[in-house]
Amino acid sequence: MAFASCGILLFALGINFLREPLLGIKEGYAPHNFGFNFIFFIPSMLAALILGLAVVGRIIKHWKTWRDLNKKWILIGMSIPAIGLWTFMIVRMIIIVTE
């Protein structure tokens, strides 16, 4: 799940970065950007977040039974970017709304 979370996150961010050359979606053109975000970007980022939360929850649940400490930290490290990105986006939206 951690590999899937990290892979989905990197794939979604890569497609988002290259959306004009790959898909012809020009930046600033609202209907195409809204459709792209609604159909592809938000669901893939949400899937990465859910997988990341599942990995962290599962590791916390089985912390004492899993003996390999390096594996635990590697899996947490692979799932934290999705959680951190969503946290950053939510905090940024809250700051913008309260200004």
Summing up helix and strand content along with how strands pair, one would put the structural category as mainly alpha
Rg calculated over all Cα atoms: 16 Å
Strand content: under 5%
From N to C, what is the helix and strand string? HHHH
Oligomer: single chain
Largest β sheet strand count, sense and barrel closure: none
Helix content: over 70%
CA-CA gap between termini: 38 Å
Q: How many extended strands?
A: 0
Poorly predicted runs are none
3D shape: elongated
Number of domains: 1
SS element count, helices:
4
The chain-level mean pLDDT equals 89
Short description:
The chain is mainly alpha-helical. The chain has four helices and no strands.
What are the salient characteristics of this protein?
99 residues, mainly alpha
Q: How would you portray this structure in words?
A:
The longest helix has 32 residues, at 30-61. The chain is 84% helix and 0% strand. The model has no long low-confidence stretch (mean pLDDT 89). Helix 1 crosses helix 4 (69-98) and helix 3 crosses helix 4. The chain has 4 helices and no strands. It has one domain (2-98). It has helices at residues 2-17, 19-23, 30-61, 69-98. By secondary structure, the protein is an all-alpha fold.
